[in-house]
Amino acid sequence: MEQKNILSVKNLKKIYSSEQAGDNLALNDLNLDVKEGEIFGLLGPNGAGKTTFINILAGTVIKTAGQVNVWGFDLDKNPRQVRASVGIVPQEVNLDPFFSPRKLLELQAGLYGIKEKDRITDTILKLVSLEKQANSYARSLSGGMKRRLLMAKALVHQPPIIILDEPTAGVDVELRQNLWKNVKLLNELGVTIILTTHYLEEAEEMCGRIAILNKGNIVALDSTKNLLDRIQTKKVTFKTDMKININEDDLESLKIVSHLDNEVCVSYEKSKINMEELINLIKKNNVKIIDISTDDGDLEDVFLRLIKN
User: Fold this and answer.
1) pLDDT for 173-182, tens place per residue?
2) Is the model's pTM score more than 0.70?
3) N or C terminus: which one in the chain shows less Cβ crowding within 10 Å?
């Protein structure tokens, strides 16, 4: 079944003009589609244009040119419906410390004009595991709970798309895992998720497809798997029972990363050498291989290479 596009962006441009600095192109001819039900990653260094893009969807920044269509609504013709179709979880924790989670969600529902009988406050609190804290002051919540409460606020009007803007910036590992679990849960319920992040591990773990943004341009847009397949270099470490004699010109593209007494770490290009050739080269020295460990590289490699070019 072909998934339909829930968000479609064509030739989106944003230019910030100021008399002092002249024109600054924040988004340059952005084209992308997000499919219904996916977790889509928007990756890029700070200043790449991720926040500008989100703010255009949120209605807080006016685009310079281009088309944006969300859930079938055109941003120019139906800005209110576009805003209503998107829930945004901001980076900054901006909660009133004297309200309880329940009260905050009820107020938020009021802002969206949702009638009391149509509100799903308790369901949302359960979803983000805050039912026990429903009536505590927001100021008494831990950092992780506050993050989940921001998520809950974005869900009040039951939007089909949730945008998480750097959801785990400055967050410890355990909390990050916890948030990922919550996000996957939401996604399983059918919510489409757009995640901006500069943690590559986060994108690798969470996203089916990734767009990499740099200086307002998309430098790559592909499935996470395909992006990872673009990594050509592989690293291997051999532990042997004695020191071996190995040179970079033994095989094409071979590089020696480090060479200790009975441990050698090499890198090579997957397209030029296969593992067997490498093992044979080591064994030529009449040594016993005690251990082999490999490192396949990660998104960081792709990312840095793309941004360099």
Assistant:
1) 888 888 888 8
2) yes
3) N
